[in-house]
């Protein structure tokens, strides 16, 4: 599956997971919305959750911007918009925080849900903490990947949110 990033460039370049993925030719960065190809857009404001039913697409698109500046309007990208369900960040900046994933974690979570676990492991291998993301989210990722559709994913997510 192709990985594309609409790159805002407003984070610290040394800590930017999207830039590291691009350095290893694991993702392609795009500086404008128009240059960003359509695909499954990972959008936290989307009305539907990502599910295995979306596996027929061949491209994931993420917006790489600071969480402080992320707004609905920034996700004005062509494609099918899907929100990731409950997952916990493992990156050093947001460790343990639900729903505050960086770009590589968002891609890895999406890939695992879509049945591409090896691809998720490959992109996370470029980060010293990458394996931790899969360990922290092992059970929810497995359960999400076994769902039929967005409704099932939301039911599983509700189980995790009820525990919080």
TrEMBL record:
CC terms in the record's Gene Ontology section: cytoplasm
16S/18S rRNA aminocarboxypropyltransferase Tsr3 C-terminal domain ranges (all copies): 40-161
GO terms, molecular function: rRNA small subunit aminocarboxypropyltransferase activity; S-adenosyl-L-methionine binding
PANTHER family, A to Z: 18S RRNA AMINOCARBOXYPROPYLTRANSFERASE, RIBOSOME BIOGENESIS PROTEIN TSR3 HOMOLOG
Binding residues annotated for S-adenosyl-L-methionine, in chain numbering: 17, 63, 84, 103
Positions of transmembrane segments: none
Function: Aminocarboxypropyltransferase that catalyzes the aminocarboxypropyl transfer on pseudouridine corresponding to position 914 in M.jannaschii 16S rRNA. It constitutes the last step in biosynthesis of the hypermodified N1-methyl-N3-(3-amino-3-carboxypropyl) pseudouridine (m1acp3-Psi).
Location of the RNase L inhibitor RLI-like possible metal-binding domain: 1-34
Keyword list, A-Z: Cytoplasm, Ribosome biogenesis, rRNA processing, S-adenosyl-L-methionine, Transferase
Reaction(s) catalysed by this chain's protein: an N(1)-methylpseudouridine in rRNA + S-adenosyl-L-methionine = N(1)-methyl-N(3)-[(3S)-3-amino-3-carboxypropyl]pseudouridine in rRNA + S-methyl-5'-thioadenosine + H(+)
UniProt source species: Halapricum desulfuricans
Name this protein carries in UniProt: 16S rRNA aminocarboxypropyltransferase
Family: Belongs to the TDD superfamily. TSR3 family.
Family annotation (Pfam families): Fer4_RLI, Ribo_biogen_C
């Amino acid at each position: 599956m192709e990985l594309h990033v609409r790159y805002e460039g407003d984070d610290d370049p040394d800590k930017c997971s999207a830039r590291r993925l691009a350095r290893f030719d694991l993702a392609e960065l795009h500086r404008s919305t128009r240059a960003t190809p359509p695909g499954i857009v990972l959008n936290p404001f989307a009305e539907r959750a990502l599910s295995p039913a979306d596996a027929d697409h061949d491209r994931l698109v993420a917006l790489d911007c600071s969480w402080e500046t992320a707004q609905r309007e920034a996700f004005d990208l062509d494609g099918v918009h899907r929100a990731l369900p409950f997952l916990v960040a493992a990156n050093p900046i947001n460790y343990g925080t639900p729903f505050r994933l960086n770009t590589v974690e968002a891609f890895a979570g999406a890939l695992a849900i879509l049945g591409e676990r090896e691809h998720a492991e490959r992109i996370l291998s470029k980060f010293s903490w990458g394996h931790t993301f899969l360990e922290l989210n092992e059970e929810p990722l497995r359960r999400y990947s076994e769902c039929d559709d967005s409704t099932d994913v939301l039911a599983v997510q509700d189980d995790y949110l009820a525990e919080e």
